[in-house]
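Today's session is about reading a structure prediction critically. Students often jump straight to the picture, but the first step is always the sequence itself: look for stretches that repeat, for charged clusters, for runs of hydrophobic residues. Only then move on to the predicted structure, which in these notes is written as discrete structure tokens rather than atom positions. Here is the chain we will use throughout the hour.
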Amino acid sequence: MLRLRSTYTLPVQQTIRIRSTRHGWCAVDNSLHDQETLVKIGIIGAGNVGSVLGRRFLEAGHEVTISASSPASPRLAEAASWGANVATAAEAATWAEVVLLAVPFTELGATLTVDVTIALAGKIVIDAVNPLAADFMSLLLGHTTSAGEQVAARLGRSCVVKAFNTILASNFASPELGGNRLLLPVAGDDPVAKKTVLELGKQLGFDAVDAGALTNARYLEPMAELLIQLAYGQGMGTNNGWTLTRA
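Below is the predicted structure for this chain, in token form.
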């Protein structure tokens, strides 16, 4: 199914070095965290989050391959129209150097099949998943674990980094609200993988901040739920987000 554009060529990457991480073995290219390096970004999930971020990454100069739960999804045709490659999840994971996982929490089992899990081995996986209930108004887990940790447990040979989950999807198109840059906390256990994701966030204009270990996803995911409560439960609308004030 993979449909590739022929007009874009990435610079040759440096040799990938294998690193031992808390959750397994991960192949991380030390050049990927360089601000000048363009990377191949695969996106699993063509919903509100994956589609907007895919377009933003393309605009930043990266090459993007995106997949959806259905090959007939109109989101894929839209993505192809603005220059993304279209593929299955396994193809996108195999092709990419960095993969953004942007699917509903309840679909993780169906999404992370054996083929996809194998393809993600040695890759940086950005987990943007929040463990939302069906009505979006509560979390399905927390305190002692997180969606980020559960993704890492499923992908034992990948470098999982929690990011892009604390910003409402409607605000990904612009990194600022009210003149302030939106906060992008980034949590993970592998320092090189985390630095790569921090640089990607900065390239998109967000205030990307190192939020510590992956276990801190337990605190980042409730931040997303509070935004949802404010936006929909309290009727404030989606034009809101987190900023970090520094003295």
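Discussion point for the tutorial: The first strand starts at residue 17 and ends at 21.
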